[in-house]
Design a protein that fits this description.
With 251 residues, the chain is mostly helical. Among the domains are: 44-153; 192-250, no CATH class. The chain is built from 9 helices and no strands.
Amino acid sequence: MHEKTNKPLKTLHLENAMYQKTENQQQFENFHHPFGGQLRSDNRWVQLSKLISWNVLEEKYASQFAKSGMGAKAKPVRIAVGALIIKEKCGFSAEETVIQIRENHYLQYFIGLPEYQDEEPFNPSMMVYFRKRLGDDILNEVNEMICSAETKKDPEDHNDKPGGNQSQKTNHGHLIVDATCAPADIRYPTDLSLLNEAREKLEAIIDRLYEALPDKTTKPRTYRINARKDYLKAAKARKMTKQALRKAVGK
């Protein structure tokens, strides 16, 4: 009889998925779509795709998967990252993101498809796994790539250069640098005066609607005089306790 040995099983990461690195087969000039013509090089999605180092992201993305060759094949990193960028940039839901990608050839180019296809590139439920597999580190790196590329691309402010055109840029408003400070004229969200102001505006609406009635009926009671007295009594109090504030709000 052979003695049994307890060998540790290999851990398969993230739903036993495997990842196969993709070859860079996408070419801007040869992207085929049934509408004729070619993609515009100045399109925002084409420009954005050039700001991201997809090969660098793929190395880090591939490390998230099992190396045993078992499990379903995962989507390429460009599809995962591109879909999340489209979703957040346009404010779409997961379902709407897939629909927009299916209908838009520029979005299909952005996520790395070699040609236009009239079918869903992935199931909307995959968006959850995309974010889970990428993690905050890779997503933050994508953000840094885009910000760094945009900073290098934008010219320096001409106002800082001698002889620059001062009329090109103008500043408006006031900048509050300290995140802990706020203008003093903003009332506290639970201020009793907000509730009183809402009551007064509601009473004004009732008055206007009542005057517009062709046949005058009995005007609804608002008890505005009593409400005004109760508000002034609470507002002029030197010290407002929680119980007193709660009672005033109730009135």
